[in-house]
Task: structure prediction
Amino acid sequence: MSGADQKLPQKEASLFKKVLRAYEQKQYKTGLKYAKQILQNPKCERHGETLCMKGLLLNYLGKKEEALDKVKRGLKCNLQSHVCWHVYGLVHRSEKEFGTAIKAYVNSLRIEKDNQTVLKDLAILQVHIRDFEGFCDTRHKLLIQNGGRRGSWIGYALACHLLNDYETALQVLSTCRGTEGDPNTPPNRPDPAASEMRCYELHLLIEAGHKEEALSFIESQSKNIVDKVWLWQTKAELLIEFNRRSEAQRLYTQLLASNPDNIAYVEGLEKCIEVFSSEAKLELYRQLKEKHNRSQIILIRTMSILPIGPELEGLLDKFLRKNLNKGMPPLWNTLKFMCASDPKKAILVDKLATGYLLNLEQNCKFHPDDREFEPPTTYSWTLYFLAGLRDWQEKHSSALELINKLIEHTPTHIEAYMLKARTMKRAGDPIEAAKVIDEGRSLDTADRFINNKCAKYLLRADQVDLAIERMTEFIREGRSTLEHLDDYQTSWFQIELARTYIRQDKRGHALRCCHQIAGHFEDFFEDQLDFHAYCIRKTTLTSYVSLLRFEDNLRSHKFYFQAAIMAIEIYVSLHDRAYQSQSEEFDEHMTQDMIKKKKKKQLKEQAKNKQKSKTASQDVGKNDSISDDKEQDKFEPSKLASTADPLGEAMKFITPLQNFAIGRIETHTHAYEVYKRKHKYLLMAQAIKRGMKIDPDNPAIHTCIIDFVLQISSLPDMDNTLITKIIFMEKSKMLAGSDPFTYTNEYLSKHQFSLPHIVAGIQSMHQLQPDNLEQNLENIITLDDDLQGITLEICVKVCKLLESKTFGQCTTQLKEYREKCRKLYPLAPCFNPIPPLANSVEPPKIEHVN
Result:
C-alpha cells in the first residue's frame, strides 16, 4: 500500500473499526489481534493508521519501545493522516514528553482542524504545562464548534480566568447561565452543577475586585447555591469590608450557633463588634461562654485574655479537673498556646497540676474537701499532663521522674512511653529515646502510628536495619521494604533515612533518598493530568483553580525543601572533596605545562569511560526486561556519589527552591555556597541580597556577607569593569558603607545576648583577624545565663567547630565548653568527655523488644 493510497478494503476497514472500538473499551489485546489481521494482508502491511493504532495498543500493554517504533513507521507511511499524528502525540504524552505531544496535536489539527477530540487533548496538555494563552485559544475554538454544551462555556471562562481576563470570564459565565438546568432536578431543589458555577462566579467577582457586585450577586443568587455555610461566611466577610457590621454580626452569630468551636467565626465576630482592648474582648467572650458553655475554643480564648487572678484560676481549675477525669491525652497541647503567650500562666497551671497530684496521692481526690473519689486513671493522666508541661519547660529531669512514676503506676500506658521517648530526644539522647519507644511499641504491635514513630526514632539513633524491620511489619511479604515505601511515597521515612546516611557518611545512599523524594513531587505534579478534564466535566471549578495554584507552589512543601537542602549540601561536599583530592594530586613542584598535560590526560580518560558507559547502557536498553533495572540504576548510590558535575546536580535542586521557596533564608544561603564554588560573583551578591530582604540580621546571612567580602578582595583585575563596579557597589551596600571589621563589631554589639548571632559573628571575626585567637575562643565558649537562643543544636554546632580545629588546637577550651554544656543538658551523651560513638563506626545496638 503506497503512501498516497491509504484506503483499506471493505473487510479490513470493518476490522479497523473494531480496533478503534476495542481501544475505546480498553480491550487492548483484542484490538491488537484485529490490527494483526489487517497487517497480515500484503496490500495493507504499510497502512499507516493501523500501524499507529497497533503501536498505541502495544504502548498500553507496556511494550514502550516496540510501540514507539510502530507509531513512527505508521506516521512515515501516512504523514497526511490526522489519526497518525494524534496517536503519535498520545504515545509521547504517555512518556510525559508534553512538548513533542503538543507539536503532534498541532500537526493533526492542520490536517483536520475541527477535530474536537484532538482539540480537547491539546487543551489538557496546554493547561498542564501552563500555556494559558494557547489553552484560551483552544477553548475558544471548542466553544465556537460546540456552543450548546455547558462544558464548552465553562472551559473558555476558566481559560480567561487563568489569563487574568476577569471581565471576559464573567461575561462568558453570565451568558452560560441561560443554557443550564437539569430536567431531573426537582423545581424546589437547586441543581448541584449550577450551584458550583455560581460559587465559581462569586469567587471570580471577589478575585477581580468587584466586591459590590459580589454582594449583589449573593443576594440575588443565594437560593441557587447549595453550600449555605460558605455563602454566609463569604457574605459576612464582604459586609465587614463595607462596614455593615450589624448584618455581618447576625451572620456570624448564626454560624457560631452551628459550630461554636470554629475559631474563624469567633475572630469574625470580634471584627464585627470592633473590639480591640482586652477588656472589650473579655466581655465578648463572657457573653459567648454563657451562650455556648460547651465550646472549648471560647473557654480557652477567655482564659488567654484573663489576667492572673481568682477568676482565671477558677476557670482553669474547672477545665483541668474535667479533662483529667475524662483522660484527655492532648490536654497539654490545648493549653500550650495560652502558656506560650504568658509564661506566668504556665506557672499557674504547674501549680494547680502539682496540687492535684499531691492530693490524689494522699486522698485520691483533686482537693481534700471534694466529696467523690477519683478513679486511678485520673492520677495517671495527671502525671502525664504534668510531665508534658515540664518537658515543654525544658525541665527534662523532672519530666522523666514523673513519667517513670507513671510507668510504675500503669505499665501499659503507651502514651507514657511516647512522652518519655520525646523527652529523651529533646534532652539529647536519641539512642535511649529509641529504646523507650520501641518498648512502648511492643505493648500494641497493631498500632501503625506508634510503629511509624518507633521507626523514626530508630533512624535518629542510626539503627537503619531495625527501623526497616519495624516498617516491614505493616508491609506484605514478597517485596523489598524500601521499594514498597518508595512506591507509597513515604517521604517522612526517606527524609529521616537520608539524615541517617549523612551521619554515617553514606552520601550516595542519602542522595538516592533525596532524589526519590524529588521524584514523588514530580509524580504529584503529573497526577493533576487526570483532573483537567474531570473538574470541568464535574463543574468543580473553584477547587480546580485552587488545585492548579497549589501545584504551582508544590515544591515549597517542607518535605521537598528538606530533601533539596540535604541534596545541595551533599553535592557541595562532594565537589569540595573532589577539589581537595585534585589539589593534592598535583605536586607543588610541578610546572604549569606538566599540570596541563596531566589534566588533558585525565579528561581523555573521563571521555573514554563516559563513551563506554553510554555504549553499555544502549546494549542494556535493547531488552525490555532490563528497562526497569535501567530505571532503577539512575538512583544507584555509587553513581550518584561519583557524579562528574556535583555543582550542576546541586543546581537542579537550587532552581526550584529559588522559584517556590524564595521566602526561606536557607534557599539563599545554600545558593550562595553553590555560586561561590562556581565563581559566579554577581549571583553570590544576588543570593545575599535576597536573603537580606528576609532577615538582614540572620547569622547565616552575616557569615555569607563577610565571606563574600573576603572572596572579592582576592579577585584579580577583571576585564569587564562594569561587573567589577556592580560587585563592589553591592559590597558597600551590604556593609552599610563601613569596613568588614567595624561591621562585624557592630553586629556583635547589637546581638550581644543572642548565642546564634555571637557564634556567627565570632566565626566572621576569626576569618578577618585569625591572629586574635584567644579572644575569639573566649567569646565563642561563653554560655552566660543572660544569653538567649541557647539550644542543644547550637551547642553541638559550637562543639563541632572546636573539634574541627577551625580555631586551631583548643583542647582546653573544648573540654571547658563540654563541661558547661553538660550542666545545661546532663542527659545528652554528645557532651561527654569521650563521646560514645567516637571510637566505633557502628552505634550501640538496640535490643529487639517483642
Remarks:
- Residues 777 and 813 are 7 Å apart (CA to CA).
- The two ends are 72 Å apart (CA to CA).
